[in-house]
Write a structure and sequence with these properties.
Blueprint: E1 2-11, E2 14-24, E3 29-33, H1 40-47, E4 55-60, E5 66-69, H2 81-86, H3 90-103, H4 111-126, H5 132-142, H6 147-150, H7 159-173, E6 177-181, H8 189-200, E7 205-209, H9 213-219, E8 222-227, E9 230-235, H10 238-273, H11 280-292, E10 319-328, E11 337-345, E12 349-353, H12 360-368, E13 375-380, E14 386-389, H13 391-395, H14 403-411, H15 420-426, H16 443-456, E15 461-465, H17 473-485, E16 489-493, H18 497-503, E17 506-511, E18 514-518, H19 523-526, E19 538-539, H20 557-574, H21 576-603, H22 612-646
Parallel strand pairs: 3-7, 3-8, 5-6, 6-7, 12-16, 12-17, 14-15, 15-16
Antiparallel strand pairs: 1-2, 1-4, 8-9, 10-11, 10-13, 17-18, 18-19
Length: 647
Amino acid sequence: MISVSGLSKAYGGRTLFRDVTFRLSNGRRIALVGGNGVGKTTILETVVGLREADAGDVSIQKDTRVGYLPQELLDSWNGSVLDEVMRGADHILQIESELRELEGELASGDPDVMERYGALQSQFEQMGGYQLEADARSILGGLGFTTGDMDRKLAEMSGGWQMRAALARLLLQKPDVLVLDEPTNHLDVDSVLWLEQQLAAFPGALLFVSHDRDFIDAVAERVVEVARQTAVEYVGGFAEFVVLREERIRMAEAEAANQARKIAHVEAFIDRFRYKATKARQVQSRIKTLEKLDKIEVPEIEELKLNFSFPEPRRSSRVVVEIKNADIGYDDDAAVVTGANLVVERGQKIALIGPNGAGKSTVLKAILGDLKPRSGSVEIGNNVDVAYFAQHQVDALDLEKTVEQEFRMTVGEQPKNRNYRTVLGSFGFSGDAVDRRVADLSGGERTRLALAETMCNPVNLLVLDEPTNHLDIPSCDVLEDALSVYPGTVLLVSHDRYLVRNTVESIVEVRDGKVTQYLDVEEHILNPSNAPSSTSSRTTDAAPAKGAKGGGKPLSRKEEKRIEAESRQAHSKRTKDLRKRVERLERQAMRAEEVVSGLEEQLGDPAVYEDPEEMKRLVATHEQAKTKAADLVSEWEEAVERLDAAS
């Protein structure tokens, strides 16, 4: 439906990307990945016609409907949530409007009117017009809107909820091609899982940018990496992309080493015979060959490395936060959370998860002292120093200052044993980047700067509310590294299951007005749709999580079996994409070999050789078919080896 060929774009003297090529067809789901500032959003905007490339073409098949969700909305909202979402199906509503007009003319008995009415009614039914409102409500429910929310004015809701409504409108529209820029930024874990299921079943083409590795694995069947001013396409989800990229680099390294040996051999010949008249022609020939040679470049993985140590905070009391039988809410409204109990001990790293509106932010506000509990108590321990990160920190950055000026203003003077440029370099601001104006930074770069400011101060309790919004994958890796070595206590609110899985030791789930703590990072809590039927290892009312990791009672045989089963489930999920690829390649290879066999039967017929042209065509086709079959068998064997290694 959409063919992208040879796209190139530069700003000033800086080339963003060149020769970007890929194809979007029915059922193809491509994830665009790469660092902040490499041009991912520019590629999306070029595909949907909002920007023009310096070179290359975007060819869109006639009558193809394209839906686009940007990172920042420019829409103005006038109606309710439901009304605004229903406008995504204007093409269906127009048919409904014409049907209403024709209904008044049916009494005339005009056969043309009756025929037109019948045709429109059939079209309206086929397009799902009669269940349109039900579909809109179902989509809104999946994205976290309550029935009451659907009748509220959308303009009165926060930017995050407006973004959800815009996504709902696109899904109701059912375009042929969906183009989404960071669609999970404002979603909770439940909504991300729901969106994964919708997009995995989407029959059209999908092009999206995301930093969420689990989301990419669940949705994408191809990954296009934009790096070093070019783009490379890989088949598979994110896990397979990482494996294939490493293989590509190893192959390039081997080819570059082989080429270097050949060059050294040629250069030795030139040096040896440069001044021999009898070898002059051969020497000149080799010199020209070297001049024309395109040297093989080994692609490098652009990674940010955490290369600073956090300032050592003062030692806090053993209990950092304690919530006892607390009902927490706002003004005269019903309590958002009731009977909450939670103990956070020094050095623990805990994730708070749950649907939006369930009370995660309410609990955080109570911990931070911004909201008093209606009953019970919320207490902070002695010597606890808190640093809090939320998206409003990004909005508070001084746009007129440089990166270094903004950083110094927030964190104070530089101690003798600390280099602020090293800290900024770890968060992606190296060299001249520290002299850029904050106003010129992308959304992801501003988030990185705000995170650096938050995490650089010597505090012993770090509270992070959705820190990965607008970050690229390398920046998420830096955040993961930072949280892993952070010497204090961490409370993390995030929908990014990969980050949660790799940085915290236990989970607090806020759902249905209750607070429940789990002993470990259990996969069926991060992915509720995969919840096992066996009893979970949660602690009642979020009592302190002890035992499994902290020297408590040994696990029973039943609990060991449950853990083994969950491990097998997690392994099965990790290898799912590889298994699918092995099965697909096996089917393709078998079909290709059948084609070869059929052609060989035709070539065995003596009558074929009576027509020289037909004989040549068959021989050429047979050679092509054999090559294709051999390539598929080779790909299948490699996929089997990767699956065996993963197993």
